[in-house]
Amino acid sequence: MQLRSKLDCKSRKNYSMKTRIQLAIASLIYLTIGCKSDSNYEAKNMLTKSLVSTYIKSIDSQGMIQISQSSYGPVNRDCLTEILNKYKFEIPFEETFQAQETDTIAWSKEFFSNDSVKILSSRERSSISRDIAPFDGETLDKTFYVISKPIFSKDQNFAILKKYFFCGGRCGQGSVLVYKKKGNGWVLQEDICPIVS
């Protein structure tokens, strides 16, 4: 009886030690993955800031540039297929397309280094959309841009940005921009899939 009691005690200690080791390993794996995804998130944010900065600089504006807080809808299937194939993005089409449809990014000032950028809330955007008459040149402060969350190629050397310029009840235009990374910046490769209202 006493021998059995000693064996039970010893096996409980072994079990307890095994459990502790397994928990320690699981914790290390969790922390490693968490840190890696944080660094991926930061790297993607830096790429996004750089790309958006390039786009903002391309806008010929004498005053405040208004950007909608909510992002633009998905690039249509045909356009996205053409771009992904032409520029060898090497990312899964369906996953990329569906991710755009559920995109809930809210642009904030942190993405824009330009001081002349104003982020419009949904309420401000709706107010402008409702109040604006057809574009007459006098309503430049009632215009705004809507841009999508960027889609980056697997190697992050190419990016897709969908943009739309709203300038009135029957005035607006947009397209899909394809950029190529060059040094620390981005160079516009193509402006395709036009949208006109």
Structure characterization notes:
This is Lipoprotein. With 197 residues, the protein is of the alpha+beta class. It has one domain (2-196). The protein has 4 helices and 7 strands, in the order αβααβαβββββ. The strands form 2 sheets. Strands 3, 4, 5, 6 and 7 form a 5-stranded antiparallel sheet that branches. The chain has a two-stranded parallel sheet with strand order 1-2. The mean pLDDT is 78. It is globular and about 75 Å long.
List the helices and strands and how they pair.
Blueprint: H1 2-58, E1 65-68, H2 77-86, H3 93-101, E2 117-120, H4 122-131, E3 144-147, E4 151-152, E5 158-168, E6 171-182, E7 185-196
Parallel strand pairs: 1-2
Antiparallel strand pairs: 3-5, 4-5, 5-6, 6-7
- Structural class per helix/strand content? alpha+beta
**Helical segment count:** 4
Low-pLDDT windows of residues: none
Radius of gyration over C-alpha positions, nearest whole angstrom: 25 Å
Compressed to H and E, one letter per element, the order equals HEHHEHEEEEE
Distance between the termini: 89 Å
Number of strands: 7
Please, how many domains? 1
Helix content: 40-55%
Q: Tell me the strand percentage band.
A: 15-25%
Q: Using the alpha-carbon principal axes, give the shape.
A: globular
- Nearest-integer average pLDDT: 78
Report on the biggest sheet: 5 strands, antiparallel
Quaternary:
single chain
Protein name: Lipoprotein
